[in-house]
Amino acid sequence: GRLAISPGARVDHSSLPSQTNVSPWIQVNWTPASRVAVTLATGVHHQLPDIEHVVGEVGGGTALQAERAAHADLGLTYAIDDRTKARVTFYDRQDHDVLRLRNSEVQRYSWGIFLPGYAPIRYVNVLEGYARGVELELRSERPNGLSGWVSYSLGYSKYRDVRRNETFPGDYDQ
């Protein structure tokens, strides 16, 4: 079989807040048989805060850090025929220093309800979490006929506010 290894990195610099991040990744493609392909990819990625996250009425200031995600995925592709492929991919992503607009949500406590506006609302790096799951895909590419794909994804995500020790599902799991 054939083996291809593709490493890489991205370097980002921001002057507001002043920080530089290096995001390395590697992808390995292996074709053990003529109709089978295996892909393994992993990396670390950063997302710098936008200007509205740093400055302005709810800006968190220059102490905000870039959000960081470490991911890995494993995919298996099987060629049913020359133009039709089935693929299954498993993925896992670990998130760190994710931004949260603190004190902007209605919250229920044993002593009552907290409404936004009673405490300063600011962006802060307080969330850690994960997303993991599986994706299934069937793809057909016919130059003179019907082409297209159908897919199904099953994923789970959960986040934790490290200062308040709150845990909750990710936005798409609620």
For the CA atoms, what is the radius of gyration? Answer: 21 Å
**Order of neighbouring strands in the sheet with most strands:** 1-2-3-4-5-8-9-10
Secondary-structure element order, as H and E? EEEHEEEEEEE
Report the biggest beta sheet as strand number plus sense, adding barrel if it closes.
8 strands, antiparallel
Number of strands: 10
Identify the overall geometry.
elongated
Distance N to C terminus: 43 Å
Mean pLDDT: 92
Residue fraction in strands: over 45%
List low-pLDDT spans: none
Count helical runs.
1
Class inferred from helices and paired strands: mainly beta
The share of residues in helices is under 10%
Description:
This protein has 174 residues and is mainly β. It is built from one helix and ten strands; from the N terminus they run βββαβββββββ. The chain has one helix spanning 51-54, and strands at residues 2-15, 18-33, 36-47, 67-79, 84-102, 107-109, 112-114, 122-140, 148-161, 166-169. Strands 1-2-3-4-5-8-9-10 form an eight-stranded antiparallel beta sheet, with no helix packed on it. It has a two-stranded antiparallel sheet with strand order 6-7. β4 and β5 form a beta hairpin. It starts with a strand and ends in a 5-residue tail after the last strand. The model has no long low-confidence stretch (mean pLDDT 92).
